[in-house]
Amino acid sequence: MPSPAHGYVAAIDAESLGVTAMLLGAGRATKEDTIDLAVGMKLRKRVGDAVEKGEPLAVLYMNRSDSSETQQMMQRTVSAFTIQKEAVPRPSLIYAVVTKEGVRRYS
Questions:
Q1: Per-residue pLDDT tens digits for 2-16
Q2: Taken in order 57, 55, 45, 35, is the CA torsion positive or negative?
Q3: Out of 7, 39, 48, 83, which could bridge 24 as a Cys pair, Cβ 3.0 to 4.6 Å?
């Protein structure tokens, strides 16, 4: 999915990407649904990454040939990314570690 603008990835809507993956067949809406192991998505950019217009934000692996559905999935994926002009700090991946001795927080 090409970036619509240059700048920095400010946010990614994980729920929207999860629903998109489910619609591709990578997940289930009901327990009766089957999972297509040949489909999915790979994110190429994370929050804080610089991005140029047209640069890939994600790669979709689809098992369908309907071009209108392909366009819809591509648009859903691109819409999940918020791009802004100003640099954005990367969020911390570890906020705290819980041990027997207590909680050690990282900022």
A1: 999 999 999 999 999
A2: positive
A3: 39
